[in-house]
Amino acid sequence: MNKQSSAASVSVIVPAMNEAENLPHVFATLPDWIDEVILVDGNSVDDTVAVARRLRPDLRVVVQSRRGKGNALIEGFQAATGDIIVMIDADGSTDGHEIRHFVDTLLTGADFAKGSRYAPGGGSDDLSPWRSLGNKVLTGFTNLLYGTGYTDLCYGYNAFWARHLDALSLDCDGFEIETLMNVRAAKAGLVIREVPSHERSRIHGTSNLHAVRDGWRVLKTILRERTWARPVPAQAQAQAQVALAK
Fold first, then answer.
1. Is the distance from CB of 32 to CB of 100 less than 8 angstroms?
2. Which string of b and e fits 14-50 if b means at least 16 CB within 10 Å?
3. Are 75 and 87 a contacting pair, CB within 8 Å?
4. Angle formed by the axes of helices 177-187 and 129-146, nearest 10°
5. Quick check: 175 pLDDT over 70?
């Protein structure tokens, strides 16, 4: 794919806090046909913003108003101008070369392209056995409650058409943002297709993710969405299952 052959403009959202050492690796993987890169800075105390601007002079910077990955992504989504929005991490764990597969999936009929480390062709250099087990349990529980067919609930490499932001109606601050997106995409009846993705280990620094605390927040999100919102229509369930099976 190149920019000329793409039928839609693409915005890439990169939430970052103190990731100056990792950004050269991340930005080097971004395709040159991307229309817009938005760095959402979580009030970094290092040179994150300066490094990002040096690497990409056309970069747009959004300074996060609160704390948390969810809040950073929501503010980045609101600032995006592209037809397609792609969300990647700033720690080097997500490979920008894979963006082509996500965009192609959307251009060929999907509403929401969901990265999966467990789909054939995917993988992870970072998942511990404990985190992998927790993810599989939460994924299975979500599939049971919502009639979906996800293989990887807690992964943050996703892409979607910007026109569906209202349907997703995102309103959380933490790492549970991916779960909320996945559940609401299914409940809205969006066509969801999984994209195999290989997660790499963080290059520099330490993660802000806490398995037990954030796993509990994910579980509460799953239960709250089922209790407080309307059930998934049967047609939406069937649509999600078929799309995910492709």
1. no
2. bbbbbbbbbbebbbeebbebbbbbbbbbbebeeebbe
3. no
4. 20
5. yes
Pairing of strands 198-199, 192-196: unpaired
For 45: left if phi > 0, alpha if psi spans -120 to 50, otherwise beta; the answer is: alpha
Q: Could you tell me the two tokens for 37?
A: 């890169």
Task: Please tell me the number of Cα atoms within 13 Å of 113 on its side-chain side.
Answer: 26
pLDDT for 173: 85
The residues, any chain, with a CB within 8 Å of residue 125's CB and separated by 6 or more, are 198, 199, 200, 201
The pTM (predicted TM-score) of the whole model is: 0.86
pLDDT for 245 equals 43
Q: Which domains does the chain have, with CATH numbers?
A: 10-245 (3.90.550.10)
CB 15 within 8 A of CB 63: no
Q: What is the DSSP letter of 231?
A: P
Mean pLDDT of the region 209-219: 65
Q: What is the mean pLDDT of the chain?
A: 87
Cβ neighbours of 241 (radius 10 Å):
15
DSSP letter (8 states) at residue 97:
G
**pLDDT at 231 exceeding the cut of 60:** no
What pLDDT digit, counting tens, does each position of 71-129 carry?
Answer: 999 999 999 999 999 999 999 999 999 999 999 999 999 999 999 999 999 989 877 78
Of 115, 116, 102, the residue nearest 161 (C-alpha): 102
Report the distance separating Cα 72 and Cα 166, nearest Å. 17
